[in-house]
Automatic annotation (TrEMBL):
<dbReference type="GO" id="GO:0030215">
    <property type="term" value="F:semaphorin receptor binding"/>
</dbReference>
<dbReference type="Pfam" id="PF01403">
    <property type="entry name" value="Sema"/>
</dbReference>
<feature type="signal peptide">
    <location>
        <begin position="1"/>
        <end position="35"/>
    </location>
</feature>
<keyword id="KW-0732">Signal</keyword>
<protein>
    <submittedName>
        <fullName>Ssemaphorin 4F</fullName>
    </submittedName>
</protein>
<feature type="region of interest" description="Disordered">
    <location>
        <begin position="546"/>
        <end position="571"/>
    </location>
</feature>
<dbReference type="GO" id="GO:0045499">
    <property type="term" value="F:chemorepellent activity"/>
</dbReference>
<dbReference type="InterPro" id="IPR027231">
    <property type="entry name" value="Semaphorin"/>
</dbReference>
<dbReference type="InterPro" id="IPR002165">
    <property type="entry name" value="Plexin_repeat"/>
</dbReference>
<keyword id="KW-1133">Transmembrane helix</keyword>
<dbReference type="InterPro" id="IPR015943">
    <property type="entry name" value="WD40/YVTN_repeat-like_dom_sf"/>
</dbReference>
<keyword id="KW-0524">Neurogenesis</keyword>
<keyword id="KW-0221">Differentiation</keyword>
<dbReference type="InterPro" id="IPR016201">
    <property type="entry name" value="PSI"/>
</dbReference>
<keyword id="KW-0217">Developmental protein</keyword>
<dbReference type="Pfam" id="PF01437">
    <property type="entry name" value="PSI"/>
</dbReference>
<keyword id="KW-0472">Membrane</keyword>
Length: 616
């Protein structure tokens, strides 16, 4: 249902150091190689293998659904509500054993909880709305979608960011999804209390039963005192001490018109973030002061597949800076709570603790500046990325522009391994390039005279010609600093050195598989020979009256049909057929895709695979 709200380039030297160089080439992942990308794409992504060292986990065997998290700041305790029990854990997580709580709630506490949230004077009506709210109003929250115009109107979660020092107004951050079937859209919008208040003080909506949309109620048709308002001192002077004294026409009107006519639009009239490939379920927010004293809103977004996105609002845009995999197995994020510098995340199988000020993971000045974390700054004296509460000496930070070139000293460049790629005429070669940041802008440096170049997502495609031979380098730039990510050298001829070793290894593997095949066939022939020999023995015994298969009942029903082969005998030929169905003893994935050109080499995902006799 719709959401509603209530009240530089080094010299290239072709070289191969070892066969590992080829494996390093294969490890280059595909990624964007040029231009800017939307800030809904995380700048960096940490898989579970890298993120696990930053996480602390709590789980009890045979206990599931850690979906309720309550933090008591006074006692520094976290209360975890699982399916069948409640746990009390000291914060932050340590090695101590959690306490299991058996909580019998007294009836007096139950009654007290029922009264919580009641507005003073809202006691319901005498005849209409007895024991019900009389101040209940609601309005649609709209979070406009991307350029196709669809609005994301299904509210998933809301985070309220209140100013700590009492200055300023609260901000509501909401996660929305689309109600249109097949539209996988998630959007984040912020709302201001004054905009909500304006809508709640505006016209009511008259719902007509004979049409699909309502019409605004005219001001003359709204009774006085205005329906849905709280009992104020002014109303008390008019003898309306509580809702029990309100006229019946006021209570009837609010019963029939709980919805406001106008929707609440987000601040600045547009969403902060829209993504079409990630489903957000939970959000928490806090305000973090930067080194300059300016405060930034930092949002943590939990996804449907168990990832955590850290986003910072810079200007009118929410930029996703980091993607952290939380769980070994994908599962939805059920609940999230912030406690001091810790983020607590509940899921079906565990509670995960994340340090929100773990600046030590950023190893260089450029990484520290480009992370744009308001809580982290680069210490020139310590040559480390550190948290900066109350310390300004020798620290640098730039949240707005992340100008690495002016803030960071020139760091020693990492010279990538230059891969020598032997090629043949008219071949198509794809040179991979994978920048460490999804926001980096990359360009290719190539020899002059190359005409057939195609920029692809996974790298650079080159059609081999005499002018295409030479050095290639992928240079990526972010924050004014540039470095070479990948370097190659195209040469004529056949592979030598480590490539020949790789072929030797491949020949060895092929010989191994052929040996296994010969051994299997030998075992199969021996098994069939033993079966035939046993059949002849049984037939000979049957002729002399020795029936070893007579049932206990004395009947002599015996079949002379040969026994059917065992499951192992039936499965072996199929396995051998599958094992020999590859190319040169290797499985079919080594042949990556059919090539329309005379020769095609892909330097990604597998060794240099050949497509026909003209390829290398």
């Amino acid at each position: 249902m719709p959401a509603s709200v209530t009240r530089l380039l080094p010299r290239l030297r072709p070289s191969w150091n070892s066969p590992v160089s080829l494996l390093l080439l294969l490890a280059l992942l595909s990624g964007p190689v040029c231009g800017r990308v939307p800030h809904s794409v995380p700048r960096t992504s940490l898989p579970i293998s890298e993120a696990d060292s930053y996480l602390t986990r709590f789980t009890i065997p045979q206990t599931y659904n850690y979906s309720v998290l309550l933090v008591d700041p006074a006692s520094h305790m976290l209360y975890v509500g699982a399916r069948d029990t409640i746990f009390a854990i000291s914060l932050p997580f340590s090695g101590e054993r959690p306490r299991r709580i058996d909580w019998m709630v007294p009836e007096a506490h139950r009654q007290n909880c029922r009264k919580k949230g009641k507005q003073e004077g809202d006691l319901g009506g005498r005849k209409t709305l007895q024991q019900r709210w009389t101040t209940f109003l609601k309005a649609d929250l709209l979070c406009p979608g991307p350029e196709h115009g669809r609005a994301s109107s299904v509210l998933q979660d809301v985070a309220i960011l209140r100013p700590e020092r009492g200055a300023g107004t609260p901000v509501f951050y909401g996660i929305f999804s689309s109600q249109w079937e097949g539209a996988a859209i998630s959007a984040v919008c912020s709302f201001r209390p004054q905009d909500i208040r304006t809508v709640l003080n505006g016209p009511f909506r008259e719902l007509k039963h004979d049409c699909n949309r309502g019409l605004p109620v005219m001001d003359n048709d709204v009774p006085q005192p205005r329906p849905g308002e709280c009992i104020t001192n002014n109303m008390k002077l008019q003898q309306f001490g509580s809702s029990l004294f309100l006229p019946d026409r006021v209570l009837t009107f609010i019963r029939d018109h709980p919805l406001m006519d106008r929707p609440v639009f987000p601040a600045d009239g547009r969403p902060l973030l829209v993504t079409t490939d990630t489903s957000y379920l939970r959000v928490v927010a806090h305000r973090v002061p930067s080194l300059s004293g300016k405060e930034y809103d930092v949002l943590y977004l939990g996804t449907e597949d168990g990832h955590l996105h850290r986003a910072v609002q810079i200007g009118a845009q929410l930029s996703v800076l980091e993607d952290l995999a939380l769980f070994p197995e994908p599962q939805p994020v059920e609940n999230m709570k912030l406690y001091q510098n810790w983020l607590l995340i509940g899921s079906r199988t565990e509670v995960t603790q994340v340090n929100t000020t773990n600046c030590g993971r950023l190893q260089s000045c450029s990484e520290c500046i480009l992370a744009r974390d308001p809580a982290c700054a680069w210490s020139i004296r310590l040559a480390a990325c550190v948290a900066h509460p109350g310390e300004h000496g020798g620290l640098v930070q730039d949240i707005e522009s992340a100008d690495v070139s002016s803030l960071c000293p020139e760091e020693p460049g990492e010279h990538p391994v230059v891969f020598e790629v032997p090629v043949a005429a008219a071949a198509h070669v794809v040179l991979p390039c994978s920048p460490s940041s999804a926001w980096a802008s990359c360009v290719w440096r190539q020899p002059s005279g190359v005409t057939a170049l195609t920029h692809r997502q996974e790298g650079l495609e080159v059609v081999i010609s005499p002018g295409a031979m030479g050095a290639y380098a992928c240079e990526c730039q972010e924050g004014g600093a540039a470095r070479v990510v990948a370097a190659y050298s195209l040469v004529w001829g056949t592979p030598r050195g480590p490539l020949s070793q790789a072929h030797t290894i491949g020949a060895g593997l092929a010989g191994f598989f052929l040996g296994v095949l010969a051994a299997s066939l030998t075992l199969l022939l021996i098994g069939q020979h033993q079966q035939r020999q046993r059949q002849r023995e049984l037939l000979a015994r049957d002729k002399v009256g020795l029936d070893l298969g007579v049932p206990p009942s004395g009947t002599t029903s015996y079949s002379q049909d040969p026994p059917s082969p065992s499951p192992e005998d039936e499965r072996l030929p199929l396995a051998l057929a599958k094992r020999g169905s590859g190319f040169g003893g290797f499985p079919p994935p080594f042949l990556l895709d059919p090539c329309p050109s005379p020769a095609h080499i892909r330097l990604t995902g597998a060794p240099l695979a050949t497509c026909d006799e003209t390829s290398i």
